[in-house]
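Troubleshooting entry. The earlier prediction with magnesium ion gave an output that would not parse, so I re-checked the input for stray whitespace and re-submitted. Clean input:
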Amino acid sequence: MKSLVGRGKYLFQEEIGEGISGITYKAINQTNNEIVVIKTIHSELLQEAEISKIRKKFLNEAQRLLECSHPNIIPYREFFSEDGVPYLVLDYIDGKTLDKIVLPDNPLPEAIAIKYIRQVGAALKFVHSKGILHRDVKPQNLILRQDTQQVILIDFGIARECSRGLVHTQTNVVSDGYAAIEQYLPRASRTAVTDVYGLAATLYTLVTAQVPIAATLRDRFALPSPKNMQPKLSNQVSEVIMLGMTLEPEERLQTVDEWLAMLPQGNRNSALFTAFRSKSRKQEVSNSASSSALPESKSVNLDQNKSVKVSENTPVKQSNNNSLYKWLTIGLLIFLGLDYAWLKFRDRVQDQPTQPNIIQQR
Ligand SMILES: Nc1ncnc2c1ncn2[C@@H]1O[C@H](COP(=O)(O)OP(=O)(O)O)[C@@H](O)[C@H]1O
Ligand SMILES: [Mg+2]
């Protein structure tokens, strides 16, 4: 491993991250003494047959970053190859990634978590407007800049173009807990809904200090609602997180904007969320009136949790039936009781010797 790259411009200082194919270093630009970050390939991989694919991955990350200049996205500096090794140079952000702040047991107050998530949402909206998906939104890829409230989205290593309708072979790199179900499928269309899932799952971790259950396990294990783990959390935030983490991509909110609009605005419920709640309550009532058994098909999502609630409370129709049976039984018992009493009374009157007989015996 060389200590100087870029024709002597950058001097490596220390390793700060290691992924499947790449290593991230802190380095110093010797021309102006600025600290930078350099991402490059693992030296062991240089002999691999797949090396050209890995080189392409770095070039792809550089291209995506070049297109995405935004206050909440890591600024790109330059990209070069030396002796066949690619180097991607980025601004160094002094701070901590959000997983280091929150995990294992330091959940953030919801107002702060939402403040961070809105910034990431703004970055994603910008990325999507460029026709790109990030596909790896998670606390490990978000840096909170030291002594500020500014959050920076990093790691465009698996970012790709959006392609509504078109089906693509996905790269099999996924982050369990934050990856949407469609990212595990070998062929799926790429749309903004995938990043909606990652963003909602990130908020899940920020407010609970727990990594969500992987999407692939959710047909067997229900995803506990954030409120379950963090009772202080508002119902609204908990429900909006579950809504963003709806398993089926077609049923999820389709854009980051739509999902962000459901989150509370300051201390107020968002108008959209209030409208959504009243609509879904009406839905619950009509569901309970029209059917006592709800379909079990779709696995865990907010709608299904609601349907569970509905069936737990037992539909109104069924409770009316129960009381009808109760009153019929009571009525029948009273009738039988009266009938029995009357028969007893009649028998006793018949068995009594009459007055004239007594006189005759005498
Ligand atoms: N620009 C940056 N400034 C400060 N730290 C960074 C920066 N980029 C990456 N890091 C650190 O390096 C780690 C790995 O970088 P990342 O781009 O996520 O690569 P990968 O996850 O593919 O290995 C990050 O989690 C973060 O801790
Ligand atoms: Mg990363």
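This one parsed fine. The chain is about 40% helix and 20% strand.
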